[in-house]
């Protein structure tokens, strides 16, 4: 019969089979794709120089969906994730502010997303693909602003 370990025993080498580390888990944790997408979306928004996430269509559709009473905000808008048991891959579409250095911004976004997702989920991020779909000019109205002013979606974007 094995003895109950004392506090001194807890500091012994794990090479001794009597004091081997316990099994890693006693169950499974499954993360929904939306969880990873929301974490990545929040991490991307933390980087200065990002105007919006998603393409023009995605932002327009999301703005209309946000007006529906009881609808949830689209934190993961513009982000697609593939989630496995141990790894994840993320694709993100961005609209950047005019004047930012896009390669530098993309590197910052990528690093922030990887750090946040790996820290919060324990998944290894194998890649973060970034598509810059537009540059927001200081004097041009945003899709959501234009809809609020005119009540309609712009014909051409």
Number of helices: 4
Low-confidence stretches: 57-66, 145-150
Give the CATH topology of the domain at 51-149.
Alpha-Beta Plaits
Kindly report how far apart the N and C termini lie: 75 Å
Radius of gyration: 23 Å
Query: What's the helix-strand series?
Result: HEHEEHEH
Main beta-sheet annotation: 4 strands, mixed
Percentage beta strand: 15-25%
In CATH, the architecture of the domain at 51-149 is: 2-Layer Sandwich
Q: What overall geometry do the principal axes of the alpha carbons give?
A: elongated
Please provide the count of β strands.
Answer: 4
Helix content class: 25-40%
- Summarize model confidence as the mean pLDDT: 78
Structural class: alpha+beta
CATH class of the domain at 51-149: Alpha Beta
Overall description:
Helix content is 33%, strand content 21%. With 157 residues, it is an alpha+beta fold. It has a domain at 51-149: Alpha-Beta Plaits (2-Layer Sandwich). α1 (33-45) crosses α3 (102-121). Mean pLDDT is 78; it is low at 57-66 and 145-150. Belongs to the asp23 family.
């Amino acid at each position: 019969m094995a003895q109950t370990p004392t506090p001194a025993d807890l500091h012994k080498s794990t090479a001794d089979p009597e004091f081997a580390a316990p099994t890693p888990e006693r169950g499974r944790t499954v993360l929904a794709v939306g969880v990873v997408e929301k974490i990545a979306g929040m991490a991307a928004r933390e980087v200065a120089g990002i105007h919006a996430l998603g393409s023009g269509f995605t932002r327009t559709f999301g703005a209309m969906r946000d007006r529906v009473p009881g609808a949830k905000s689209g934190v993961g808008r513009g982000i697609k994730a593939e989630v496995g048991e141990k790894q994840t891959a993320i694709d993100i579409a961005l609209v950047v502010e005019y004047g930012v250095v896009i390669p530098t911004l993309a590197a910052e976004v990528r690093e922030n997303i990887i750090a946040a997702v790996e820290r919060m989920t324990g998944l290894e991020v194998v890649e973060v693909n970034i598509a810059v779909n537009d540059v927001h000019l200081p004097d041009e109205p945003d899709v959501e602003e234009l809809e609020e002013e005119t009540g309609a979606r712009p014909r051409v974007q």
